[in-house]
Amino acid sequence: MKYQPSLPGRNDNVSDEHPLKDFLSILVKLAALALLAFFVLGLLVDAVVDRMDASTEAALTRLIADKAPGVMAAPDKPHPREAQLQALVDSLRSCARLTGPATVRLTESKVPNAVVVPGGNIYVFSALLEHVQSENGLAFVLAHELAHLSHRDHLRALGRGIVLYGLAALLSGDTSALATVLAPVRQLGDANYSRARESAADARALQVLACRYGHAGGATEFFQALDAGKDKAIPGAHYFDSHPAMRARIAAIQAAVAQQGLKTGAVVPLAMPK
Amino acid sequence: MDGFASFFPLLIWVLPIVLGFFFGRLNEKRHYRSIHAREQAWLHLPTTASRYPLLPGQVARSELVGGSVVVSVDYFKRAAAGLRSIVGGPVKSYESLLDRAKREAVLRLKESCPGAHEIVNLRLETASLSKNARGGIGAVEVFAFATAIYLAEQTAA
Q1: How far is it, in rounded angstroms, from Cα A107 to Cα A241?
Q2: What CATH number has the domain spanning B2-151?
Q3: All structural domains of chain A with their residue ranges
Q4: Residues in chain B within 8 Å Cβ distance of A12
Q5: d(CA B144, CA A147)
Q6: H or E element: which one contains B157?
Q7: DSSP H helices in chain B
Q8: Residue to test with chain B: of A1, A6, A14, most B Cβ within 10 A
Q9: Which residue from B minimizes the CA distance to A10?
Q10: pLDDT bracket for residue A228 (50, 70, 90)
Q11: Would the CB atoms of B55 and A237 count as touching at under 8 Å?
């Protein structure tokens, strides 16, 4: 046999298809599957939280209260402003139909906001007090936080967090690397759900405000103050916001006021001790 | 805004993959051009895995020759393989990498013995560097070794 040198015409050992095709097809399918799983498990979390009885909620709250970030020890002597905030929250209790504990803590911060952490602690950031002029305006913000408490929104957020990290661990084998990657994705997906929860809390807060003062005056005060202080908005930024955009929020509250036939009366001016 | 800042970790993750894709593709194209040209140039040198030479004649001298190459995987190939490892199936992104490495190793072997008349007993070995070390970029070494045969003057064509 004579040796005749030649090279093969084609290489069968290497696939011809574009490398991106393989990459994207797996990525898209996995992402779709993970999103579907997150959606379904999220509904399951809602179902479980809705059906949970008070004693289970209390036990769960005790379990997570100590580990929640930002929980500080109670001060020996409450600030006079804090005592006033507490009195305001206590006056809203019956209207908010709150059964669990609700403790207000005032913290120094330049961010005008209030948050609720597991265990029934409401943190009011000091800058918030500069953005409200009336007791009614402040009561609406506090009622909003109380609504989060009674809607068990912190448990829903916790449940969804567990679902997300569980999925991340399942897909990657560890949560450390993928969690940082998923954080913005989570924010994007969660924001919509979160906005819905915020709107629900706003609606509830409006009812509480009307119950407490007999009218809905001052409901939009805080948001209007924030909106006025906002110089410019980045287009598209609202997709990442967990809270509805200010103007949309104000409009929604005003629409609810009109729809429910609520009156807007005179507001009680806010007198805060120094 | 808060939302945009939280996208930076994603960017840090995506950027090496995008860079890996473009530089990896560019390198691969350039390497394949070189491989095709050199394979054509070395076509005259018969190379087999057989124990016996193809060419008739008196063997004057034989020697052990080798050629080795280390190639590194880029971030894109690694990400594609990582995704593949979740669902299973052929890891297409590594196919061209190993194909290039094997052919380059054989070419280097041939280039190490320009006067040889034939190569027999060709063997290939692969070794993975930084096996499963965390954070270590995967690289593979391919080592080709063979016997180069030099025929006696009078019978050499």
Answers
A1: 23
A2: 3.30.110.70
A3: 33-259
A4: none
A5: 72
A6: none
A7: 2-5, 8-41, 75-87, 92-111
A8: A14
A9: B36
A10: confident
A11: no
Do the Cβ atoms of B80 and B123 come closer than 8 Å?
no
Does any CB of chain B come closer than 8 Å to the CB of residue A91?
A: no
> Cβ of A11 and B99 within 8 Å?
yes
Question: What's the rounded Cα separation, in Å, for the pair A239 and A235?
Answer: 9
A13 contacts B3? CB cut-off 8 A: no
User: pLDDT tens digit string along B107-156?
Assistant: 999 999 999 999 999 999 999 887 666 656 678 899 999 999 999 976 44
| pLDDT score, position B98 | 92
Greater confidence (B155 vs A41) lies with A41
CA proximity to A82, closest of A108, A113, A100, A61: A108
Angle between helices B75-87 and B92-111 (to 10 degrees): 130
Does B74 score more than 50 pLDDT?
Answer: yes
Q: Comparing C-alpha atoms, which of B31, B92, B107, B72 is closest to residue A13?
A: B92
CA dihedral A79, A80, A84, A85 (to 10 degrees): -20
How confident is the model at residue B132, as a pLDDT?
A: 61
B14-31 pLDDT, tens digit per residue, is 888 899 999 999 999 999
Q: Could you give the C-alpha distances from B2 to A232, A239, B5, B6, in angstroms and in order?
A: 14, 11, 5, 7
Contact A215, A265 (CB under 8 A): yes
> What's residue A105's pLDDT?
84
Partners of A27 on chain B (C-beta within 8 Å) are: 83
**A178 pLDDT more than 60:** no
Q: Do B95 and A15 touch (CB under 8 A)?
A: yes
- Which of A232, A206, A223, A33 lies closest to A114 in space, CA to CA? A223
Q: How far is A70 from chain B (nearest CA, A)?
A: 19
Number of C-beta neighbours around residue A123 at 10 A:
20
Which amino acid, one-letter code, is at B62?
A: S
